[in-house]
Design goal:
alpha/beta; 761 residues; 8-stranded parallel β-barrel; 43% helix; 27 strands
Length: 761
């Protein structure tokens, strides 16, 4: 502002020294702070925080600060995804409570020095902004200018926050003496810890605690417990009462926080938003690769794809004829616009044609603290045309690789990045060495794609996690329609990460997806004989105009739920399904014979809510009505259930239809009547389905040979016999129940099964 005691340069330098001093003194404070109790620690923290506030005000840096400047900066603060919608719904409930339902009071408490800045940063509509009680410090304003550089102090430290919460409860009880009050405090830092442990339910936001709050919790004996799916505030409050020591609950996102309030009935159930992926890549006018392939992949996965275009190319099946650059600054503006509003659960980078664009993208990844970053270092098109200029290789290694969750170079790109001669990488052993060398530049994982290796009959990709090498193989598909395979693979990995899958699981799923796309596209003839034919991204969707192209890879690991097994192991449905998917299940069937229709619909919605953001199809067993009501991806019917033709008419052309069969004739009939796949068996005797008929492996093999739709082997399959089943029947996948849900650790059981299957496919 005009009244500042410093020039901008002097102020910036002084601020830097103050910040450096703060962190140095904070480290010293943490080394000697009392850890006898949270109260003792926070009393010491109070002295430290107040001294730091005094020292900062004494610098005079706040003199001349204008309120309009703070408001402007507040409008550009990115909120975590889901924060605004939950706060808005809680405020709406506070303003208009439902008769007979619990009332809600929502407050925002912060150590911030400006109410104007804080309210703007919440991005609420005016009527809610005015209704929101905000408790924070405030600068001393005169005509919109902080002339004296002073602060009106009201919430300076952890003790202030806890005492404020207690006073709010007292006021509520004074207004209604008979009122039962329960307090919930949501925070993300050590300054919130005292209020959290004093509340009925204290919730720590973030998938993992920060170093400071983690150290204090351990030192003071505060237990941090993850919230499980399906738990309500009342449930958490009961757990808190039963715990003798300090206990806080952790959620990884605002979506998880919202689910707790939904279970309590304090906010309406919110339609689950899809996972989001930002695709930073060049445009391919031919539609085969680049941003077009990225977005098609996102759509197939059920993920919401967004764009930041880095270059415009004129290309078709014969090659790239021209490239028009995009200003690096504008690339950054696209990223800011998307992330500042919608957010991004994962990021995939493709063609970054100049050193300046690489640097801008890296700076935005850092500025927005973007996670799940998949870097596909595109240097050359499939046709051999160069897509990057000088300096890009060093910029990748210097700027983006240290920020990457996984990098995905192909063989020529790996050679270029490492300065090797073309043709140096000939074998999977060479690729493994290259992966280890590239890992030294900072990415968490390195995937060297083996499509250019000519010494094998399979596509062998090498994945390195810093410790172990994983060689992931799929059959090579003979076709020239492979334009955009690298873009598609990188985007598919990003989709998996965005949905919550691990890197290894995401890469495996992505390889299966790409293989399915290539297979379904191999006979296409788009273009006039060009060498780089495109792929058609249809495996996970149906079109009314043509046959449903359900990717066989989606059926490889078919997990079928069992409520009895979950009950015996003390876990909920959502927890069990999420663990199965994380372990590697590629499709989930909800099978429940005992539930009422209403309960079954609710269960189906729970499973869809878990699986859809991860791109995992959900099938409902037997009940066409439930599949439609819950918007599941399809239904599976038995030979004594609704006729397939009727089921197809009801669910329409856009849903998956599966059928159980026992012999060749039933399978052919199911195919004629519109089934997208059949479940064939039972292969072995099984206790999970009392009416199953043992048909054996030979009958399943005959079914596989007779039909052109995918076949899933069913009945008594586990990790010990799955490989034998696949080898002797040729089935596209296996359905398992007790092998996944029968034990105490669903994720580990699923992971072991996936390991067995990965050796076959």
């Amino acid at each position: 502002g005009g009244g500042s005691a410093y020039t901008p340069e002097e102020g910036e330098a002084k601020l830097g020294r103050i910040v450096e001093k703060y962190f140095a003194e904070q480290r010293e404070f943490m080394s000697s702070a009392p850890m006898t109790s949270v109260q003792d620690f926070c009393e010491a923290q109070r002295v430290f925080d107040r001294r730091m506030n005094h020292d900062f005000v004494a610098t005079g840096l706040l003199k001349g600060l204008e309120e309009r400047t703070l408001r402007s900066h507040g409008r550009h603060v990115p909120l975590r995804v889901g924060a605004r919608s939950l706060l808005s719904d809680l405020l709406a409930r506070s303003a208009g409570p439902k008769p007979g339902a619990a009332a809600v009071e929502a407050h925002v408490v912060s150590l911030c020095w400006s109410r104007a800045f804080l309210t703007e940063s919440l991005h609420l509509p005016p009527h809610l902004r005015e209704a929101l009680p905000v408790h924070c410090n405030e600068l001393e304003w005169r005509d919109g200018v902080c002339e004296g550089g002073e602060i009106v102090r009201s919430v300076q430290d952890p003790v202030d926050k806890a005492e404020l919460m207690a006073s709010l409860v007292r006021r509520a009880k004074e207004r209604d003496p008979g009122r039962l009050c329960k307090t919930v405090f949501v925070g993300d830092s050590v300054g919130d810890l005292l209020a959290m442990v004093r509340s009925d339910v204290g919730i720590l936001m973030g998938s993992s605690p920060g170093k400071v709050i983690g150290a204090v919790c351990r030192g003071c004996g505060v237990k941090v417990v993850d919230v499980e799916p399906g738990q309500s505030l009342s449930c958490l409050s009961g757990l808190r009462e039963a715990e003798l020591g300090g206990l806080v609950f952790r959620v990884g996102s605002w979506a998880e926080l919202r689910a707790i309030f939904e279970e309590e009935g304090l906010v309406e159930r919110h339609p689950r938003n899809p996972a989001t992926v930002l695709c930073i890549s060049g445009s391919d006018s031919g539609g085969g690769a680049g941003n077009q392939a990225d977005l098609k992949t996102c759509s197939s996965y059920g993920v919401f794809g967004m764009s930041a275009i880095t270059a415009l190319t004129a290309q078709n099946t014969r090659g790239v004829s021209s490239i028009s650059g995009v200003d690096a600054g504008f690339v950054g503006e696209q990223i800011d616009a998307v992330v500042g509003d919608i957010g991004a659960d994962a990021v995939k980078t493709g063609m970054l044609a100049t050193e300046e664009i690489v640097e801008v993208v890296a700076s935005k990844v850092r500025a927005h603290a973007l996670r799940n970053v998949v870097v596909d270092p595109v240097l050359v098109a499939t046709s051999g045309d160069a897509l990057a200029r000088g300096g890009v290789v060093s910029a990748y290694l210097r700027e983006l690789f240290p920020l990457a969750t996984v990098v995905t170079p192909n063989i020529p790109e790996a050679e270029a990045l490492l300065g090797l001669k073309a043709g140096s990488i000939q074998t999977t052993e060479d690729a493994a060495r290259a992966a280890r060398e590239l890992h030294k530049f900072g990415p968490r994982w390195v995937l060297v794609k083996g499509g250019h290796l000519t010494s094998t009959s399979v596509c062998a990709d090498v994945l390195f996690d810093g410790d172990d090498i994983h060689v992931l193989e799929t059959d090579l598909v003979e076709t020239s329609n492979t334009h955009g395979t690298g873009c598609t693979l990188g985007s598919a990995i990003a989709c998996g990460l965005a949905g919550g899958m691990g890197v290894l699981e995401s890469v495996r799923a992505a390889k299966g997806y790409v293989t399915g796309v290539i297979t379904s596209s191999r006979d296409m003839g788009l273009g006039r004989g060009g060498a780089q034919g495109p792929m058609h991204h249809q495996p996970l969707v149906r079109t009314a105009a043509g046959p449903h192209l359900l990717s066989p890879s989606a059926l490889r690991f078919y997990a079928v739920t069992d409520s009895g097994m979950n009950e015996r192991n003390g876990r909920g449905l959502a927890e069990a399904v999420l663990a199965a998917v994380r372990g590697g299940a590629t499709i989930v069937q909800l099978r429940e014979k005992r539930a009422s229709t209403a309960d079954l619909i609710e269960q189906a919605r729970v499973v869809v809510g878990v699986c859809r953001p991860l791109g995992i199809p959900v099938i409902v067993n037997d009940r066409v009505d439930v599949a439609i009501a819950a918007d599941a991806d399809g239904v599976h019917v038995g030979d004594d259930d609704m006729p397939l033709e009727d089921a197809r008419r009801i669910i329409g052309p856009l849903k998956i239809l599966g059928a159980s069969v026992k012999n060749r004739d039933q399978a052919l009939q199911a195919q004629r009547e519109g089934a997208d796949y059949v479940g064939a068996g039972a292969c072995y005797t099984t206790s999970t389905k009392s009416d199953s008929v043992l048909v054996g492996l030979e009958a399943v093999r005959e079914i596989k040979e007779a039909v052109s739709i995918p076949v899933v082997a069913i009945g008594g399959i586990n990790e010990k016999n799955a490989a034998e089943v696949l080898a002797l029947t040729g089935a596209d996948g296996v359905a398992v129940v007790s092998a996944v849900f029968g034990g105490p650790d669903v994720e580990e059981s699923s992971r072991r099964m996936r390991e067995v299957l990965s050796k076959v496919y």
